[in-house]
Design a protein that fits this description.
Two copies of one chain form a homodimer. Chain A is of the alpha/beta class and 273 residues long. Chain A has twelve helices and ten strands.
Chain lengths: 273, 273
């Protein structure tokens, strides 16, 4: 499948969470067309093993390649943590994850050189943010904590009030926000919906870093380097693909995208091997 | 694949939750060997469509048939709600779900004829408990509520204290426990782990009904009718199969089974069509 600068950007995630990344991409690159794939039949990836997440990621990438995408954005932190090497080896197009750009932005943000990262059990156990931060700059002190209940809270729409505040306090107390930590990386696409609650618990001296915006900036750089940026689009189209029936994706997804989703097409993934 | 009374009982679930049903089976039928399959690569089923859950259920059943099981127990409430007709049409062995037996026990339990059912969004939206209760006896008033956060709370091990109490209060207030409701059906295999918290919020006039024990009794009846009950086992074996890597299943599963799990074998499912 050939591609050029009019080709769309491909984005995949395990479900609706990656729509926060798509939203950042639409704001940063408003002329670009996009194809978004949510693997809603297999969501969530965060509690699954690296082996299984890599298999699903390759199948997602294959489905997007059929739409002629010019770059693949791995909007899922868990998949970014474990599947990038396999995706880069298998695909003929550039692959951008959310962790590298998020880590780079976090390292620029901290003044105390003490950071905290929160994410799904899969992302945190992989050590991917910790490694990416160490690769950006030595001498950073990184605390990490898995917060498995944040995803269901965000999807349930319980993003304010007593329950999320208590859950956040339970996760963020106990050493994560140790003395001097001034930067907290939201290492899961769902967490921006809980940003207000998390900010309140973390306190005013801590800056939250959202990997979605950092990833969108990085996609713009990657496309510019290869002269693949759309400059004169006749039309800008946004397509949505899902692997389960679309109703719940359309309903919950609108909260993540910040605007209504007109429709989504259900497809079957072909697993390799 | 032939089977006789020495053949094992096959049980499947989307993950660890069905181990509460396996536990009830082991207590009710201690001579029987079992093969348990947790589809941990695709967990959870509760937020997925009936179409997708049915496809996964058939693949789970096919995998268990290869072990020569003499009866299939669908330990997952969501799969019991949507996939039983397809499973019964496709399989050469009896298929027992958890909803029919749970509804029958609930109808025997209530004195006021006013019941409440809680479960995953998939189970509640299917209306399966509501229909099964209506089929057992007319004139029952049934209230229903989806409680999506209960599953992650149980898996996280947050089964006591302030957070589960607040979450339970939020779900169970607002009409579910309307005047006169005296019976509450735990329509999800995870919920028995939260039974104490739920009982405290529901109050002493409400009796909790656990579908797992009711299903185990029904399996015993089905096997007895067909002269398939194990009476003189030389050995009793319990095998565990999973579709993702076994580590997390073994760790979290022990809490659901109430005893350690020695090991689990990872298999790939073959999806039909």
């Amino acid at each position: 499948m050939r591609f050029d600068r009019h080709s769309p950007i491909g984005v995949f995630d395990s479900g609706v969470g990656g729509l926060t990344v798509l939203k950042a991409l639409m704001e940063r690159l408003p002329l670009e067309s996009t194809v978004y794939l949510g693997d809603t039949a297999r969501v969530p990836y965060g509690t699954k093993s690296g082996e299984v997440v890599t298999k699903y990621s390759l199948a997602n990438a294959d489905a997007l390649l059929e739409y002629g995408v010019k770059v693949l954005v791995v909007a899922c932190n868990t998949a970014s943590a474990v599947a990038l090497p396999a995706l880069r080896e298998a695909l003929p197009i550039p692959v951008v994850g959310v962790i590298g750009p998020g880590a780079a932005l976090a390292a620029q943000t901290t003044k105390s050189n003490k950071l905290a990262v929160i994410g799904t059990p899969g992302t945190i156990a992989s050590g991917a943010y910790q490694q990416a931060l160490a690769a950006v700059r030595g001498g950073l002190e990184v605390h990490a904590q898995a917060c498995p209940l944040f995803v269901p809270l965000a999807e349930e729409g319980w993003t304010e009030g007593e329950v999320p505040a208590l859950v956040a306090a339970r996760y963020l107390s106990g050493g994560l926000l140790a003395e001097g930590v001034d930067t907290l990386v939201l290492g899961c696409t769902h967490y921006p919906l809980l940003a207000e609650v998390i900010q309140r618990v973390a306190g005013p001296t801590v800056t939250l870093v959202d990997s979605a915006r950092a990833a969108a900036d990085h996609v713009a750089e990657v496309l510019a380097e290869r002269d693949l940026l759309e400059r004169d689009a006749k039309t800008t189209e946004h397509h949505y693909l899902v692997t389960d029936t679309p109703a719940r994706f359309i309903e919950v997804g609108a909260r993540f995208l910040g605007k209504p989703i007109a429709g989504a097409k259900q497809i079957d993934l072909k697993l390799r091997g």
